Amino acid sequence: MDSWVRFNSQSQAKERVLRTAQYACMLLGYTLHKSRVAPDLHRTISDLEAHMSLTRKLLRLGNSVEALQAAKRAIHLSDSVLRLCLTIGHLNRAMYFACDNVLWAGKTGIISKLDQQKWSQRSFR
After folding, report:
1. Average confidence score pLDDT of the chain
2. What pLDDT shows up at residue 78?
3. At CA 120, angle to CA 114 and CA 125, rounded to 5?
């Protein structure tokens, strides 16, 4: 488990680079759409942005495990208020990432017939 958490922390830098590239593709796609130039290029840029989004979600697969590990560590704090707040916060983050993982599986086709809108709403509650 510790090796997965260590790998996941190294993946966060890669996720930031991909996020920057994804947002650059979004900006370029918006600019191409507004200028109505090269619809094929706009579609290619949009597809690239979608693939980067799925790749970022793939890199976040282990974040729910990391959040559960943090909740396990927070349970042992001596201050009861801090213990309660941190444990609930980490569990909430783990639930968000679990919903995010289900959404990723639905978008990649691993889980067919997934109600994407329902799971999106669950991840933001």
Report:
1. 86
2. 94
3. 135
First to last CA, the chain: 28
> E strand or H helix at 125, and its extent?
none
116 neighbors 103 (Cβ within 8 angstroms) = yes
In tens, the pLDDT along 50-98 reads: 888 888 888 777 788 889 999 999 999 999 999 999 999 999 999 988 8
The structure tokens listed for 63 are 């974040």
> Tokens for 104?
């990723």
61 versus 123: the higher-pLDDT residue is: 61
Residues counted in the chain: 125
Q: Which ranges in 1-79 belong to alpha helices (H)?
A: 2-35, 39-59, 63-74
Residue among 54, 41, 46 at smallest CA distance from 15 = 54
What's the CA gap between 120 and 93, in Å, rounded? 15
Structure tokens at 49: 């942005």
HSE of 100 in the Cβ direction (CA atoms, 13 Å)? 20
